[in-house]
Amino acid sequence: MLTTYSKSVIPIIEAAYEDLTNVEKSIADYFINNVSDDDLSSRSVSQRLFVSEASLSRFSKKLGFSGYRQFLFEYKGSKKTDKNLDILTKQVLNSYQKVLEKTYHLIDNGQMIRLANMLDEYERVYVYGIGSSSVVAREFKLRFMRLGLDVDYLAEAHSIRMNITRVNEKSLVIGISVSGRTQEVVEGLRDAKDKGAKTVMISANKVYEYRDYYDELVLIGGLKNLAVSDKISPQVPALIVIDVLYTHYLNYNNDNKKEKLKMTLEHVEYEIEE
């Protein structure tokens, strides 16, 4: 049975969280963690949180809504159904469901198409990822290399710094950092952009101080406020986005890429279904 996901504003709140004032963060925390059916009118919420109604309006506008009324309309979601599972299983499955819901909301279909086309526009693609993000960087290389893309991944600070000698205006450089603040990745994108390369950041946060370092920001769902966030890899949302991008890329110039994929799989003794 295909699950239908409803739009949620929680990922938007989380992505903008670091840029909020202390008062706005208190409002954000309330809506992120709210599980009751309390009156959510601006008067009631302002009294409950000891903030002004104007603060609710500014908070909503900072998230991209026209005002608190539109924010509240989008915030009110559908009721969740339950199933006879133990609490630990429920926590894990619910966390994965929330990750998918966050991805569903944050994914920009136009951006995916744009990036898929961009991959063919540049002579060489470099993917930077440190620590657990290196797993995603490596997966990116393996997935897209099957389709004939000239791609390399770099997973150590020294390698990223040295790679600047290979980067030029014909390069596409993709950085993966869940926090958006991994120094080696951020500096790698900055240096690549200075060399004229096209740069993309994949992150769960909008870090405005680094906004000039990348041409595209691909937002992924973070694991904040999940019951078992320490049990789920923080790279899961990034891997989902890579799968979406891969699907679009495979669809772009379809025949040529499917032929390359078939050839690759034949060489590694896999069978591909027609």
In short:
By secondary structure, this protein is α/β, with parallel strands linked by helices. It is built from 12 helices and 5 strands. It folds into 2 domains: 1-79, Arc Repressor Mutant, subunit A, CATH 1.10.10; 105-267, 3-Layer(aba) Sandwich (Rossmann fold), CATH 3.40.50.10490.
Task: Please tell me about this protein's structure.
Helix 10 (183-194) links the parallel strand 3 and strand 4 (198-203). The longest helix has 20 residues, at 87-106. The chain has two domains: 1-79, Arc Repressor Mutant, subunit A (Orthogonal Bundle); 105-267, Glucose-6-phosphate isomerase like protein, domain 1 (Rossmann fold, 3-Layer(aba) Sandwich), CATH 3.40.50.10490. It contains twelve helices and five strands. The protein is α/β, with parallel strands linked by helices and 274 residues long. It has helices spanning 10-16, 22-33, 42-49, 53-62, 68-75, 87-106, 109-121, 133-145, 157-162, 183-194, 236-251, 254-267, and strands at residues 124-129, 151-154, 171-176, 198-203, 216-219. Helices cover 51% and strands 9% of the residues. Helix 2 crosses helix 4 and helix 4 crosses helix 5 (68-75). A five-stranded parallel sheet has the order 2-1-3-4-5, sandwiched between helices.
